[in-house]
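Researcher: We're reviewing a set of sequences before deciding which ones to prioritize for further study. For each one, I'd like a predicted 3D structure that I can look through quickly. This is DUF883 family protein. If possible, include the structure in token form so it fits the rest of the review sheet.
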Amino acid sequence: MTTNGNNTTASTNTSADTQGDAGTLAHLRESASHAYESTRESAATAAARASEGIEANPLAVLAGGIALGAILGALLPKSESEQKVLGPLGKRLSETAAAAATAAREAGKEQLTSAIPDKDAAKESLKKAFGNVVEAAKDGGKTAATGSSAA
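Model: Here's the predicted structure for DUF883 family protein, in token form for your review sheet.
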């Protein structure tokens, strides 16, 4: 009979353990379900905010994306095949950019030089303008003298 008593006690303990495991499992499932719902709601809220931000400032988002892409591109190491394929292209782009910068600088110098008159031309313009002022003053004086004597 002792054996039966021990079996009954062991059977009762196993039944209690199974019920405890089932309760723990149910609790874990409930926690996981709650975490899933919470994460899903947070993701939906974040997506809505991102959509509103993109609609409000599309150029800022574009600029940010370009900047992020440039940063990531600069941080990632170049592979050997990329260096083989893109190396000559990079050199050509650098040379073209340097030539364009030089051409722009020269064109700017030419524009400034043509906008600023040279010394002799400036003197001639001033003489001409001064001569016109003197002639206008003479004509004004003659008109005043003629007008005052006629009155």
